[in-house]
Design a protein that fits this description.
Elements lengths: L9 H12 L6 E4 L5 E5 L4 E5 L6 H15 L18 E3 L2 E7 L13 H18 L17 H14 L8 H20 L5 H4 L4 E4 L8 E4 L2 E5 L6 E4 H12 L10 H12 L6 H16 L5 H6 L4 H29 L5
Antiparallel strand pairs: 1-2, 2-3, 3-5, 4-5, 6-9, 7-8
Length: 342
C-alpha cells in the first residue's frame, strides 16, 4: 500500500524541485506504479521518486552507488540528477527523494517474455553480477543458510499449520489453499533428506541486484531499455536469483512448470559471465524450492483479506513451482551439470 505523500500539492513539488535541484518545473503528474510515490515532471522529462519510510537514506545511498557503478559498464540503468549541493538524493519531511531522467518504455507482466526476451534477461543478469564484482562499497550479506536448516523447516511447518484453522471449508479458494498448504508441508518433510547442508555452504555468494526479475525491466522495442530498483542489492547465493528470475519471465513457465531446454540455455547464457561451480548447479533448484516451500506469501494475505485475490493467484503460482521442482529437481540438476562438461 502506498504511503501518503509528504507533498501537499503539485505547487509544493514545483517549489521543492526549484529550491533543491534548481530545475524549472511547469508540469507535474502522479504515476501509479510501484510502492513509492512517483511523479512525472515536465511531461516525462524527469521522474521524482519519494521512497517509503521503511527505506533508510543509507539503503538509498547504496542503491545510487550501485547504479552509478553499473553505468560505468554501459549497463542500462537510471541516471540520477544531482541536487544543488552535489548529492544524488535529498531528505524532505523525513522522506528520501531522488530525481532521475525519464526512461522511455513499457513493462511486461510476469511470464510475458518470449524466448529471446528470456535469454536477454539472463545475459543482462550476467553482466550486472560481473560488473558488481568491482563495486567499491560493501553490500549487506543476505545470509540464506537459515532457509536450509532443520529448525527453519520445523518453523515453516508450524507457520503453515497455523493458517489451517482460519480456512472456511465452504469456500472454494479456502479448500484449494488447504490442499496447497498440506502439499507444501508434505514436501517440506520429504525434501530435507535430499539436501547436504555442508555442501550447500559452497554456493557462490556474490554481489547482486537482490530482487532481479522481469518486473524490474523497462522495455523499448521488445528489448530491455533499463533495469531499475536496486534498493535490495546485497550479497547472496546468485543461483537463487538466477532461477527465480527465469521462473518469472518465460511465458512457457506461466503455470509453474519450466521449459527445461530454455532454462538450460538461460543458465548457459549467465555462465558466460560468471562461472558457476558444481554445487551451484546441483542445488540451484533445491534452493529455490525450499525458499518458496517455506513461504506462505499470498495465502496469508488472502486469508486476512479476501480482496487480495491477485496475491492469492501468486500463491497458487508459487505452489505450482514447488510441485514442479519437487518432482523434477534431480532431472534439472542432471541437465545443468552438462554445462560443466562442455
Amino acid at each position: 500500500m502506498l504511503e501518503k505523500t509528504v507533498f501537499e500539492n503539485n505547487e509544493e513539488i514545483i517549489r521543492y524541485v526549484k529550491n533543491i535541484y534548481g530545475l524549472n518545473i511547469n508540469n507535474v503528474k502522479k504515476i501509479n506504479r510501484g510502492s513509492a510515490n512517483i511523479y512525472s515532471l515536465n511531461d516525462d522529462k524527469y521522474i521524482l521518486k519519494e521512497f517509503q519510510s521503511k527505506y533508510s537514506k543509507i539503503e538509498i545511498d547504496k542503491e545510487i552507488e550501485v547504479i552509478n557503478h553499473l553505468r560505468k559498464f554501459n549497463i542500462k540503468v537510471p541516471e540520477y540528477i544531482k541536487t544543488l549541493n552535489g548529492r544524488y538524493d535529498d531528505v524532505y519531511k523525513n522522506k528520501t527523494i531522488i530525481i532521475q531522467y525519464f526512461i522511455d518504455g513499457y513493462t511486461l507482466n510476469n511470464n510475458g517474455g518470449t524466448y529471446d526476451q528470456t535469454i536477454e534477461c539472463a545475459d543482462c543478469y550476467g553482466k550486472i553480477v560481473s560488473a558488481l564484482k568491482s563495486l567499491p562499497i560493501e553490500l549487506p550479506d543476505a545470509d540464506l543458510s537459515s532457509w536450509y536448516s532443520k529448525e527453519n523447516f520445523d518453523l515453516s511447518i508450524k507457520k503453515h499449520k497455523d493458517l489451517l484453522p482460519m480456512l472456511d471449508e465452504n469456500d472454494y479458494n479456502d479448500r484449494k489453499i488447504k490442499k496447497d498448504i498440506l502439499d507444501k508441508i508434505e514436501m517440506i518433510k520429504l525434501v530435507s533428506p535430499r539436501l547436504n547442508f555442508d555442501e550447500m555452504k559452497n554456493l557462490s555468494v556474490l554481489n547482486t541486484h537482490g530482487d532481479y526479475s522481469v518486473l524490474q525491466f523497462i522495455y523499448k522495442n521488445g528489448t530491455i531499455n533499463a533495469v531499475i530498483d536496486f534498493v535490495s542489492a546485497c550479497k547472496m547465493p546468485i543461483v537463487w536469483e538466477l532461477i527465480r528470475s527465469y521462473s518469472y519471465i518465460d511465458k512457457d513457465a506461466k503455470d509453474g512448470e519450466f521449459n527445461l531446454d530454455t532454462f538450460v540455455d538461460y543458465v548457459k547464457t549467465f555462465n558466460k559471465y560468471i562461472k558457476l561451480n558444481k554445487y551451484d548447479l546441483k542445488y540451484m533448484a533445491y534452493l529455490y524450492l525450499i525458499q518458496i516451500l517455506n513461504s506462505n506469501f499470498g495465502y496469508k494475505q488472502y486469508i486476512y483479506d479476501h480482496k487480495n485475490k491477485e496475491l492469492l493467484e501468486f500463491g497458487y503460482f508459487r505452489t505450482n513451482i514447488c510441485r514442479y521442482l519437487f518432482n523434477n529437481a534431480s532431472l534439472i540438476t542432471k541437465r545443468l551439470e552438462t554445462i560443466l562438461r562442455k
